Each structure stands twice: as structure tokens, then as C-alpha cells.
Amino acid sequence: MYQIHIKRKDLDNQEFLKLRQATEKISNVLTKRLKTHLDILKPLFLPRKLLGTYIKSAFRDEVAGSDKSFATLQERYAAICEKPFKLPKKLKVPLAPIANQLEVTSYQYPLAIDGSDSKTIQITSPTKWILSYRSDCPISRLKAILAGHEPVQTEDMVRSLVDHLVLVIFLEKFPYLKQILEDLRYSVDVEEIDELGGLQVVVVRAPLETFLPPDDFILQITQLSGVPAFQEIVDLEALENMPDPLKESLLRSIE
Asked: Region 82-103: what's the mean pLDDT?
């Protein structure tokens, strides 16, 4: 499900240029920070800890609960693999190796703008990312395959779906990892991507509010650029009032 209920603010061209530059700088800092955190935490996200011998590996140790974890993976994969991907419902075991490396993809969603010049604009969030195990078939490639812009590669598509679903199940199995990310001031949620058959993905967000200008302003900018894409804008006023989860937790503890 895409984020469509976002705050709106009026902007003039001068304000837009200033805020767009600030948003780009803030987004770069936040993305670099998130990647650094994930690189440090990487050893805690070892896929074999969840699925054991269901994954190809040099290690053959049994992992408690791996049967149940794989059954959950098979169930969720089977629910989305046929439509729209036309993939076989049964996963082959052992699964291909899953890279013990986490990657982030900017969160994007379509914004339909109605009117005399109706069109769909691809919106990117500067403070929100899709988190997954590293894949040779990221979400952008999955979408391109479904749109017919790239040839169908069945094995790559299967591995991409598995890479995303395994991380969702991993965080369910080991909730302390979600707590660590939240202690680092990220919110962590699971969302479904409708155009990918309801594929569940892990979404990480920094604690900064963003907004969009009115539709007509977005149309004006995209017409000038010639590209049907736009980025949410960081609310600099909200930057000065960022929430502090630790402070709020401590205050709740003494109420």
C-alpha cells in the first residue's frame, strides 16, 4: 500500500529551489547514515539463522524453528507468485544462497493527478527506504520485467521475492532487531506493494516529516523537466522538532 496521505504546502519557485537543494543534502546524509548502521548490524541478519539447511550453505547445522520459518516463507511466496509474476508456486529447496548483505532502495509510489492534463507522477521519498537482502533483481527490475521492458528471468524473479519475504519473516522471528533500528531513531514497518501482487517489504523511515506542493505545481515542474517524477520535500520546520523516542519512552515510564 502506497503512502498517499501526505501533508501539502504551497510553495513559490524560489522556496522550491531552496528546499529541493536542502532536501537533497539531507537525504544523502540520511541514506549514508542508514547504510553505515546496516553494515554494522549485518552479522545479526544472517539468513541461515532463520532457515538453516533450507538455504545452500557450507554449514549444515540444523536451526531450531527453521521448518516453521520455511513453511511461512512458502505460504507467503505462494500467495503472490502466480499473479502477476506467473511463477511456480512451490519453492525448490535448498534455496539459492541469500547474500548476508542488506541494501536500501528509495521508497517510490505513484501519484495520480487528475485534470485536463491527467497523468501519473512517480514520487520518491527522501526519508523512507525499502530494506531487503541484496538482490540481482531489485524492485525496479521486477517492475521493468512486469512492464515488458526487460526479458523474463524466472530464477531472478523468484530470488527477488524470496529476498524480500525472508527479511520480513526474519524481523518477525527476531523482534529485537526491529527494536535496535527503532532505538537508532528509525521506524520499521511492513508494507505491501500492490503493483507487485501485494509483495510484503520492510520499510524503514527516518523521523523527519515531508510534504508535497499542490498538484498543479508538481505538474508545472514535471512538464519543465520532461520527466514524470518528483521528490517529496523535507519540512525544515519539522527538522527543528524531531521526536526523541528515548525521551518519550522515559517520560511514559514515570507517568
From this structure: 94
Phi, psi of 125 (to 5 degrees): -95, 135
135/161 Cα distance (integer angstroms): 9
Nearest Cα to Cα of residue 166 among 236, 101, 247:
101
- CB environment 22-31: b (16+ within 10 A), e (fewer): ebeebbeebb
Mean pLDDT of 215-237: 93
Long-range contacts, stretch 108-114, CB < 8 angstroms, 24+ apart? 109/2, 109/3, 109/4, 110/2, 111/4, 111/212, 111/218, 111/230, 113/215, 113/218, 113/219
Task: Report pTM.
Answer: 0.91
- Banded model confidence at residue 117, pLDDT cuts 50, 70, 90: low
**Cα–Cα distance measured from residue 1 to residue 191, given in angstroms and rounded to the nearest whole number:** 6
Which residues are CB-neighbours of 138 under 8 A, at least 6 positions away? 103, 105, 132, 160
